[in-house]
């Protein structure tokens, strides 16, 4: 059986003369949960809207199972993009009641699971009789989660699904996501800023920075490339000479450095030196790789 | 398929609702505004009905289309599909316009006790301008949805209202004989019908690359 990949080849997006997404090649394979991370304005939503045929790319192609996605009803019926809802917009979904929004979605997704949608609505205690514009941020997120999960689309993409949700609801969402994934094996792409609590869910991460695709790797493999080395400053300097240092911070004579290297290289560099090695959380890696620490230094 | 069928039924019922509303509102409108001092005229009643129908249709298109397009595209509708749906809308509006004019006559008879006198050769003009107006309504839907911008929608709405107003003035105040002469001119009717086409093309040019913004 043919593997139904969602493939972007050389896609770019320009708004007027500004290229917000530089040439990007990416393949979304079936049966995986991807985490899409990047700072504000990195091009996450742009990339997702190009992948789902909701926005035309400036150059390049987007295909699903070898067929062009743009204006292709068959392909679009298998791809659900649950966009973040925004209360500020005058037009679009905001004038809908929650139930009408979901009813409309049901018309377009051939695998729509009405019973599942109703279970989720009851579980979230979501008032679908209210207009979307009247819902709280958290409620809007819940509605997009219902849409995404009940669509049963083989490729399901969620843009900031946990924005505005409290910790308990975020945890509930990730459990639902994993549960659904285990049952159906469908593909999820989740864009989020709350990286740490989602990192255990993501099988692969896609890291965007300033419109460039920086990384697309297995999460464990990626995280295993980063290490904290800490100890007395001169000893740490000795241990990290020849290694790629991403971040450094000190307190008195104590110093902690984040390096990117294979574990055996780090172990070899630290051999015989009085330093401590520790793993680096994904959120910190994200900050160091995307240059977020510059702002910390400015503060 | 079933859901789609139910939706179609719902839309048709909505159109019928608008049509009936237009006919009912046209009665006091005509009584109060048009015929305080003048003799009742069936043609004027039909014109008033038509005006009301266009007004309600305009409001309906403005709210309904612009609100529906974005989520539809976000849910994987194609722009071609939407365009087809808009064409169906246009045909429904035109059909609604014609039906409202036809039905207005017996309704007026009930209220005024006048014998049924249909507008005769004015009918093609009504039909052509119904199509014409509906196409602009469709264009308004595209435009406001395209930019999600209230000012564009308002601008187009003003244009649309002016256009309706001009048509209504023409229909109401032009002598019946003159109207009948105009409507009996096949070139004029053909011209009005042709005038329906460009907005659809313009609409398509705008729509074919429309992003589905949230």
Give an overview in words.
The complex is a heterodimer of chains A (299) and B (214). Chain A has 299 residues and is an alpha/beta fold. Chain A contains 12 helices and 14 strands. In chain A, the strands form 3 sheets. A 6-stranded mixed sheet of chain A has the order 6-7-8-3-9-10, sandwiched between helices. In chain A, strands 2-1-4-5 form a 4-stranded antiparallel sheet, with helices on one face. In chain A, α3 runs parallel beside α5 and α4 (114-124) runs antiparallel to α5. The termini of chain A are far apart. The model of chain A is unreliable at 295-299 (pLDDT under 50). Chain B is built from 8 helices and no strands. In chain B, α2 (42-74) packs antiparallel against α3 and α4 packs parallel to α7. Chain B starts with a helix and ends in a 7-residue tail after the last helix. The model of chain B is unreliable at 32-39, 115-125, 143-152 and 194-203 (pLDDT under 50). The chains are: A alpha/beta (299), B mainly alpha (214). At the A-B interface, β6 and α3 of A face α1, α2 and α3 of B.
Oligomer description: heterodimer
Please give the count of helices of chain A. Answer: 12
Number of strands of chain B: 0
Q: If you compute it from the alpha carbons, what radius of gyration of chain B comes out, rounded to the nearest whole angstrom?
A: 18 Å
Measured between the Cα atoms of the first and last residue of chain A, the distance is: 55 Å
Helix/strand/pairing class of chain A, anyone? alpha/beta
Overall, the morphology of chain A is globular
Low-confidence stretches of chain B: 32-39, 115-125, 143-152, 194-203
Strand order of the largest sheet of chain A: 6-7-8-3-9-10
- Proportion of residues in helical segments of chain A: 25-40%
Query: What is the helix/strand order of chain A?
Result: EEEHEEHEHHHEHEHEEHEHEEHEHH
Structural class of chain B: mainly alpha
Distance from first to last alpha carbon of chain B: 27 Å
The H-and-E topology of chain B, N to C, reads as HHHHHHHH
Contiguous uncertain segments of 5+ residues of chain A: 295-299
Q: Approximately how much beta-strand content do the residues of chain B carry?
A: under 5%
- Percent strand of chain A equals 25-35%
